[in-house]
Amino acid sequence: MNSEIQQLKSFLQEAGSAVIVSHENPDGDAIGSAIALARMLKELNIESKVWLPGRFPAYYRWMSGSDDISYYSENKNDIVDHLKNADLLFALDLSSVSRTGKMSETLSHFQGKRVLIDHHINPSYDEFDLVFSDITVSSTCELLFHLLDLLGILPKMTKEVAEALYVGIMTDTGSFSFNCNSPVTYEVVAHLVKTGVSPDRIHKMVYDNNHENRIRLLGYALQKMKVLPQHHTAYISLDKAELKKAGSQPGDTEGIVNFALSIKNIVLAAFFSVREGEIKVSFRSKGNFSVNDFARKHFNGGGHYNAAGGSFSGTIEEAVKRFESILPEYVHELAACNEQLS
Ligand SMILES: [Mn+2]
Hints:
By secondary structure, the chain is an alpha/beta fold. The chain is built from 14 helices and twelve strands. The strands form two sheets. Strands 3-2-1-4-5-6 form a six-stranded parallel β-sheet, with helices on both faces. Strands 7-8-9-10-12-11 form a six-stranded mixed β-sheet. Helix 6 packs antiparallel against helix 7. The longest helix has 16 residues, at 28-43. The two termini are 39 Å apart. 43% of the residues are buried. The model has no long low-confidence stretch (mean pLDDT 96). Bound molecules: manganese (II) ion. Manganese (II) ion is lined by residues 29, 93, 119, 139-140, 172.
């Protein structure tokens, strides 16, 4: 990583301004890493602007710096000027620019240097001038912490930056329940807590801030859940009308898939919903079943070994039917995986 760090240092020395982007449906890791990087670039006298493809859930809006974020879904013009004036483009928490959705077309006109910082499987090296990729870290926020350390600027980290990084690590590990077997993650967290982060408070702000409709929607979704014991699989689908009836807001369905996965003897869980005329699917798995491979092969997606996403063009019923029809191919693999876990 040394030569990459030297390269990054020289990019940063030559840069006056930067644009920071992350993926569609921004999660805690996307928002946290973007806010933290923007703040740290300021310490290096680099002005930056964070552009996200669309809005993020209300339970992240308390984060310091979140008001300065711009949204492509609401303003397609200013980003063109920002990109024109920027020397650097940072892409965070995504393996390919295509993960920024419709914003990717605008980004393709960017003339400066492109830097990727990410922890997903198979990053698109050819889309970037410099790639920091580590699929073994808990989150992009953890990887960013290590980069800030290697750049020698950790002492400049404020409590607000530490909080942003903590949000990414906490949410990408499901509150330290997966992707968190490395002691290094806890060393990073210890540093963040020493910088003033209160894990109690942040947990409450993110997880205990639900509006009533969201919890009722969860109840509805769990009632509707389908369990296929012979395939050690459980899935939930919610169509547009169901979400509307529940009075749901963006981000409300986040994490529902994990409830399906939490059932004993279930090793594969899926969640289907409709977004921008497309069916989006979230996959989660336990143990040795790679949902990255599964999503890549059948649903035009990917992500991490045990957490991935994909999409499907057609109706939600067709997507579910497709999913069910594929499962027999995996019957032995799913059974073996369950055997190993029990
Ligand atoms: Mn992430």
